[in-house]
Amino acid sequence: MQFHERPVNPRAAELNRNVERVANGVLRSWDHVKELAHLGGRAAQYDDVHYEFVGGAQDGLRKKHYDKSLRLLWKAELSAPWSSFHDAGKHEGEIVELAEKSMTGEERSIRERITSAEFKALLDREYTVEQKRAIVAILSAIGHGEAYAWLVSASLLPQVKSTGAKAAVTMQVLEEAKHFVVMRELVEAFGVGVPRQSAWEYLLLEGTLKAKGLDRFFGMNILVESIALSIFGVLSTLPGLDVLRLFHLDESRHTALPMNYFKEFPLSRWQMRSPLGRVRRIKMTLPTLPLIMYLEPELAVLGIDAFDFAGSVMRKVTHLTERAGFLQPEDARQQNAFFNRVFNAYCRATRPGHVDKDFMSAECTQGEAELAVEREIFGDAA
Question: How do strand 52-53 and strand 46-47 relate by DSSP bridges?
Fold first, then answer.
């Protein structure tokens, strides 16, 4: 695959790697000590080194229950046509029925093997080893995030009110589970190894999981899901990654959930304006800055300016934050201006001849369908 690879300051990249390595050691050691002392520690029972939850993959259990549940998932529109549900796609029933009738079990098995081999061959043909590693580093960051999204979504079920809201969150739990297991297989298909969580991902995701009450909506549905949405929008047009378009569509619903929920159950004035709440939310946002710097070399390999990407993400995050009613210490305009100054200062220090630019107006999403989806959510901020 031909990318217009961007230059990266090697000293800055090495410094970011070394800082992360030290921070990671301190964070993991501190949480381990707290666990031994029964004072908390890591909230997620997740093994990011092996890209699995604690207890292992247990693919046999997954196939018996998760895969089978999806195969047998029924649509109310087809099974109960008298109901008010519209949950079946056009001609979905006929297509599924015809497909199942036309293939034997042996044919399905052969097709799956051929598809898997062809997919890996496509990846080998389209990408260099360096490009594969860059894609895996970026996707695995979101893959680890999907593990936390699964846990956070499940933890929100007792928090939200109404049958409709619980049904919506339940479907998000299902979709996050689907994202995690599918992303895991996609990433492993590249055959280059999966990196552990960086210290900055660890801080961001653990902070979200440990957040109190509906602050988890901010941390996961607004902050983390906006990052995921943007990554899927950037990569979904690349060869072999078209499945990310489906991920992108799911994430668009997830980012909209807090806004829709708070229309029915508005935040109290204190929840919106609490000084401590504002500080908590800005604190949750801060690890995204070193995370972007940490991933700059991988993004550069794919021809993506890390700070164009960061600017587009932060613009969308501040837009969703205000629409949902999660007020920050500063309004969206001031916050975007602050991040833009930080990005330009870093680039002046690491990119010879850098000319200040408005990173916050950048748009990195590629596909027309993906751009249309984002315009529906973000409007002028897309």
Answer: antiparallel
- 14, pLDDT greater than 90: yes
Total of domains in the chain: 1
Q: Which segment, 72-86, 98-112, 240-254, is predicted with the most confidence on average?
A: 240-254
Question: Which residues form the domain of 152?
Answer: 10-42+128-381
Q: Which of 171, 240, 184, 175 is nearest to 59 (CA)?
A: 184
Q: Quick check: 356 pLDDT over 90?
A: yes
The answer as to whether 88 is a domain residue is: no
- Assess if residue 256 is contained within a domain: yes
- The tokens for 7 are 């230059």
pTM over 0.85: no
CATH of residue 244: 1.10.620
What DSSP letter does each residue of 317-357 carry, written as one string? HHHHHHHHT---SS-HHHHHHHHHHHHHHHHHHHSTT----
Calculate helix-pair angle for 199-210, 275-285, nearest 10 degrees.
Answer: 150
Q: What is the pLDDT of residue 200?
A: 97
Q: Are 340 and 360 in contact (CB under 8 A)?
A: yes
Structure tokens at 300: 């550069």
What tokens appear for 239 in the block? 């060869």
Residue that wins the pLDDT comparison between 343 and 330: 343
Both tokens assigned to 109: 């098995």
85: in domain: no
Looking at the DSSP assignment, which residues form a beta bridge with residue 53?
Answer: 46
Please determine, for residue 114, whether its predicted confidence score (pLDDT) is greater than 50: no
Per-residue pLDDT at 92: 63
| Three-class SS of 122-184 | HHHHHCCHHHHHHHHHHHHHHHHHHHHHHHHHHHHCCCCCCHHHHHHHHHHHHHHHHHHHHHH
Instruction: For residue 77, give the nearest of 90, 67, 68 by alpha carbon.
Output: 90
Question: For residue 90, is pLDDT > 70?
Answer: no
Residue 154 lies in a domain: yes
